[in-house]
UniProtKB/TrEMBL annotation:
Listed name of the protein: tRNA (guanine-N(1)-)-methyltransferase
Domain tRNA methyltransferase TRMD/TRM10-type: 13-233
CDD domains (UniProt xref): TrmD-like
GO molecular function, one term: tRNA (guanine(37)-N1)-methyltransferase activity
Provenance organism: Methylobacterium soli
Length: 246
């Protein structure tokens, strides 16, 4: 297996936001920060307000039809997107949105395998609906709750992608065995000390029998997934009492 430690065209995240100073933020530390410093990926935050209108560089207006809050203008957002990504830019264009398709590890893996992302971060009540189709934005949600802006959601998305880039994680294997890969939650981990507050590490893990360890981990993985996330499992893997009658 070859690992591209210095890819010629780094994976590139362009983030459109009213708060570019939030980036790289936490992405500039630890695993993603080291990879950023090495040039394995690139983080470009662009200010939507640079395309704002008038003396006050206004970016939003009141909702048509009335109601609380403000809406990001489609003309302003479109200008920001057009200046950030040429029409032939191959990167997918995403809009962070609680109405979007929930993000999954499979989608993250696909995005990490591409050239990068252009991500629009909403604020206020959201964005004028017309810019979504007008600029081919794919709405992505990070979960069924509402944040005050798309920036933290974009960080979640970019972090999940960056750790899968070639050479970013210490061991190639750690990306394959963890939660959601293979449709299961990960098995429990233990490390020293062997005994702690009356609880010891399961004996099988310290016995050195690798086949037995693999069996134990697979069984724990299935047990946890059945208990916590049966929705991840096919009907054949559900515990007998959780199966629906045919
Ligand atoms: N009025 C909207 C919520 C706007 S929240 C509604 O009820 O659907 C402001 C911005 O935060 C959104 O435009 C989006 O960019 C971001 N945001 C909020 N929750 C999010 C979530 N769960 N996933 C992704 N982005 C989210």
């Amino acid at each position: 297996m070859t690992t591209a430690l210095t890819p010629t065209a780094p994976w590139r995240a362009t983030i459109l936001t009213l708060y570019p100073e939030m980036f790289p933020g936490p992405l500039g530390l630890s695993l993603s920060g080291d990879a950023l410093a090495r040039g394995a990926w690139d983080c470009e935050a662009r200010n939507i307000r640079d395309h704002g209108l008038g003396r006050h560089r206004s970016v939003d207006d009141t909702p048509a039809g009335g109601g609380a809050g403000m809406v990001l203008r489609c003309d302003v957002l479109a200008a920001a997107i057009d200046s950030a990504a040429a029409p032939d830019d191959p990167r997918p264009r995403l809009l962070m949105s609680p109405r979007g398709r929930p993000l999954t590890q499979a989608r993250v893996r696909a995005l990490a395998g591409g050239p990068g992302l252009v991500v629009v971060c909403g604020r206020f009540e959201g964005v004028d609906e017309r810019v979504i189709a007008g600029r081919g934005l794919e709405e992505v949600s990070i979960g069924d709750y509402v944040l005050s802006g798309g920036e933290i959601a974009a960080m979640v998305l970019v972090d999940a992608c960056v750790r899968l880039l070639p050479g970013v994680m210490g061991k190639e294997a750690s990306g394959v065995e963890e939660s959601f890969e293979g449709g299961r939650l990960e098995y429990p981990h233990f490390t020293r000390p062997r005994d702690w507050e009356g609880h010891s590490i399961p004996e099988v893990l310290t016995g050195g029998n690798h086949a037995a360890i693999a069996r134990w981990r697979a069984a724990e993985s299935l047990r946890l997934t059945r208990a916590r996330r049966p929705d991840l499992l096919g009907p054949d893997l559900l515990a007998p009492d959780a199966r629906k009658d045919p």
